[in-house]
Amino acid sequence: MAEEKKPLHQGQSLAIGLAIGLGFGVAMDNIPIGLCIGVALGAAYEGHYKNKNKDKEEK
Questions:
Q1: Which of 8, 9, 56, 59 is most buried (CB neighbours < 10 A)?
Q2: Which residues of 25-47 are buried (b: 16+ CB within 10 A; e: fewer)?
């Protein structure tokens, strides 16, 4: 049986990006920069994920 992937809810990838960015910020001892990196990563992943799903729906 093929397993269906659960879609990410809006904002969930942003939260994951913030968590990763916060980890980078703590490691670099510069939390504000880490949060900015996390927001950028989360937004990029969410945008990529939405475009990927949109392409599949069009086919």
A1: 8
A2: beeeeeeeebbebbeebbeebbe
